[in-house]
Amino acid sequence: MNQSGRSGRLKFFLGILTAIIVLHIIVLILIVNSSGAEKTAVDKKAANLPEPSAKEVKPVEKKPVWRYRKPSKNPYFGKPLNYKGARHGSLNHIVPGDTATAGIIVDMNTRRVLWEKNSNRPVPVASMSKMMTLLLAMEHLEAQPELSLQSPIRVSREVLTVPRSGVIWLDPRETFSYEDLIKCAAIKSANDASFQLALAVSGSEARFVSLMNQKAKALNMNRTTFINSHGLPAQNGNSLSTAHDMVLLGERLLEYPFLMTCCATSSSSIRTGDRKTVFRNSNNLIRRNFRGMEGMKTGFTRKAGFCLTFCVTRDGRRLMGCVTGFSTAKERDTFCENLIEWAFKGCPDTPVKQRVVKSAVRKKVRSRKNIKR
Known about the structure:
Layout: H1 3-48, E1 87-88, E2 102-107, E3 112-117, E4 123-124, H2 130-143, E5 152-154, E6 175-177, H3 178-188, H4 191-202, H5 205-218, E7 240-241, H6 243-253, H7 257-263, E8 267-270, E9 277-280, H8 284-287, E10 293-301, E11 305-314, E12 317-326, H9 329-344, H10 352-372
Parallel strand pairs: 1-3
Antiparallel strand pairs: 2-3, 2-12, 4-7, 5-6, 8-9, 10-11, 11-12
């Protein structure tokens, strides 16, 4: 190969090499310009829109949708009861008929205890135990979307083991709704209905009683022990609680409007046709339309005496109380009526008996005047 051929080939390769180098330089320039443009855009965005704070990027929590529960709006709900300034011991010198073993009355708007007597002493509470049964039944319905108040419950043969007193005579051949069984337990205080609710919720009463006691601890009912779902005495004793603890429990029932409707119902029924069963509320103060009475639960056994957990609201002020150990239902009811009136009037030192007598005298005078006319 001559000199001119070699020189031409060298020029050719140099040309290709130069082209490759130029091409690489162009690519590098494009890459640098592109990254610079992106950085400028980001800088502009950062200058105009500051990065959101940690609070702003938190996901929004969805509020639970309740079917049966209506959460309390009371800012004091669930707080400890305030005993400061409370009257202690027997009220016989002010409110006659105070033969209660234990009792309490609380202003639920402030949680101030107005009066208490052995309110932290564990005593038999009889059918007031059903308040916990009813609460757990409603919580069970709330937690199971597939269930409702209309869901059917087939009566179990185990119900026949419940002592046949204070019952609605449930039959294993029957089927009832949750609504019917809750009404029977809350209004009639039916022991067999409470037992059947326990089976429907947990499958066995033993498991249900365990749930009852777990819930009691969660509610700070620290001196409460349940032994069954209905409150009747058993071989292993009685369900025990305190007046203080029953108020804490009663407060939770207020969050379930259906339960409170039952508690305030004078009479109701189950079954239809010739087999229709009508029953009345075991709370006489409901049947007498005592002013502001929202209900709650009665109880009676020989050891517990006549008991009542009650709730009354007047002009936006709510009082809740519990009394146990009365010899008769009449004595219990009379004392509760006078106790409630005394509390709403500001807990005066003037004996309630004198106020009642004065009122009665005025009525007699008015009636005489009307006769003369």
